[in-house]
Design a protein that fits this description.
The protein has about 325 residues and is of the alpha/beta class. It has one domain: Alpha-Beta Barrel (TIM Barrel). About 45% of the residues lie in helices and about 15% in strands. The protein has an 8-stranded parallel beta barrel with strand order 1-2-3-6-7-8-9-10, surrounded by 7 helices. Strands 4-5 form a two-stranded antiparallel sheet. The chain starts with a helix and ends in an 11-residue tail after the last helix. Bound molecules: 1,3-dihydroxyacetonephosphate (13P).
């Protein structure tokens, strides 16, 4: 398959991406939040349970894995990548090494992981990966994000993308403007504009083929602590406007992160965006928390009741599948 074909398969209409690439530390926070012991067995058990649900075939075009998971075997003996391929999902891998303090602007962060990346990519390809993820993080504050942070992170994202395409995989380019803070939606719009612009400048300099990437941006939303609440329709209008102005039309797929939105908010907002999507972009989800939260809770309560866990995950994935076509409605949630 060409890179463009892989990108389109990941974001096919009615499907999206499951971000199950939490690092061991982040996954442990999730397990602790539902009162489950943090062990290798439990981490794998939860993921295997999701990956054996019927939603995988119907609504999940791709799954992002963490380094540990792509090397693991399921309880039936096949490898996790084989299980995903059987369900026709493209196998993805998080390749960044998390964030570090940005020298010279220590309240901001830079994403690490370029050293040795070429060699790691060739191993991941052999393990079955056909796409990758790298997340850059931007905080909104009085003086943030700084030009230094925007330029350094965009440069790293572009160098990563060039290496990934050289290794014949599709890079997910994830510049995340965080929802932390009390900023309003227009501030998020402006910062997202600056960040996207710089990312596409750098991607051009590094000669990255835009038809062979998937963009994973934040939606344009107010900060968690903003006093000005907005409707999904306003979020949709501003998000789509921002994407139309700042994302080159060659990009085939845009898959949003959920960023701390509740499950229904993330679905509702994605649906509102697709209801007015007049672009050629395939616009869908690449959710972590907003796809897994309820399933995680049910798993913690009834670990041996696979049907109950599958029912919850299948429902959430179906709702997001509908939202990726602009066909969701609140009435379907009950
Ligand atoms: P959330 O949807 O939970 O924000 O996670 C998506 C992701 O992959 C962040 O890198």
């Amino acid at each position: 398959m060409t890179l463009e074909e892989i990108a389109k398969k990941m974001c096919a209409k009615g499907k999206g991406i499951l971000a199950a690439d939490e690092s061991t530390g982040t996954m442990d926070k999730r397990l602790t939040s539902v009162g489950v012991e943090c062990t290798d067995k439990n981490r794998l058990n939860f993921r295997e349970t999701l990956f054996t649900s019927s939603a995988m075939k119907s609504y999940i075009g791709g799954v992002i894995l963490f380094d540990v998971t792509i090397r693991e075997k399921t309880s039936t003996g096949i490898s996790i990548p084989e299980l995903l391929e059987k369900n026709n999902s493209v196998v993805g891998i998080k390749v960044d090494k998390g964030t570090k303090k940005l020298a010279g602007s220590p309240e901001e962060v830079i994403t690490d992981g370029l050293d040795g990346l070429r060699e790691r990519l060739s191993e991941y390809y052999k393990l079955g990966a056909r796409f990758t993820k790298w997340r850059a993080v931007f905080n909104i504050g009085k003086n943030y994000p700084s030009i230094q942070s925007i330029k350094s992170n965009a440069h790293a994202l572009a160098r990563y993308s060039a290496l990934v395409q050289e290794a014949k995989m599709v890079p997910i380019v994830e510049p995340e403007v965080l929802m932390e803070g009390d900023h309003d939606i227009d501030t998020c719009y402006k910062v997202t504009t600056d960040v996207l612009n710089e990312c596409f400048n750098e991607l051009a300099i590094q000669k990255v083929l835009l038809k062979g990437i998937v963009l994973k941006p934040n939606m344009v939303v107010p900060g968690f602590k903003s006093s000005k609440k907005v409707t999904p329709e306003e979020i949709a209008k501003k998000t789509l406007d921002c994407l139309k102005k700042n994302v080159p039309s060659d990009v085939p797929g845009i898959a949003f992160l959920s960023g701390g939105q509740s499950e229904q908010e993330a679905t509702n907002n994605l649906d509102a965006i697709n209801k007015i999507n007049d672009t050629n972009f395939l616009i869908t989800y690449s959710y972590g928390r907003a796809l897994q939260q309820s399933a995680l809770k049910t798993w913690a309560e009834e670990m041996n009741n696979t049907k109950a866990i599958h029912d919850v995950f299948n429902h959430r994935a179906k709702m997001n599948g509908l939202a990726s076509k602009g066909e969701w409605s609140q009435a379907l949630e009950v």
